[in-house]
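Posted in: Structural Biology > Protein-Ligand Complexes

Title: Requesting predicted complex, FE2/S2 (inorganic) cluster in pocket

I'd be grateful if someone could produce the 3D structure tokens for the following input. Sequence and ligand are given below.
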Amino acid sequence: MDNWIDVGSVDELSATPLKRVTVMNREFAVSYKDGTFGVLSNTCNHAGGPLGKGRLDGEYIVCPWHNWKFNAITIRNHVLIRNKVAGFIIVGGQDNIQAVAGHMLGFFAELGFIFPQFPYIAHSRGWSHEDMEHNVEIVRNSKELAEGAEMLAKRCLELAAHLVARDEAPSSIERGGRKAHAVHL
Ligand code: FES
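-- Reply #1 --
Done. Output follows.
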């Protein structure tokens, strides 16, 4: 493979439970525990602390600055979300409700969530209502939207109960998701 980059031998990388590794000017925190490697960006989501200088706590990397914890399991082929259902209530002051729904469905689908039939209820209040802080109140005070939300929640719960009872979701899917795999054309 021409585009593989040698970041060190297994012996070298497994010698310490956590270390910082630089690859093509990007820094990663590489963990090693019980025969398994994990890789995260070295930069903590909180305030940029160096995760590679932190410590391991079970399967978590603990940031050395304020102790935030991050799961160190790599996502390649792993199904991290199993038997979980998502449904959406979308209310806004714009007319692009379906675009928002599309983004939400795409994002949650890629994480591994399952959707009930008719997975969202949506209502656009039009361009003159850019007061997002009132959106929840609108759903609460609208009999139709409240009923729609209730029925959606019911569909989600029924599907979730079915999935949990059967527990058939695999824990690993070859080439599942797009972010963990390079494409060679
Ligand atoms: S910078 Fe990592 S926990 Fe604050």
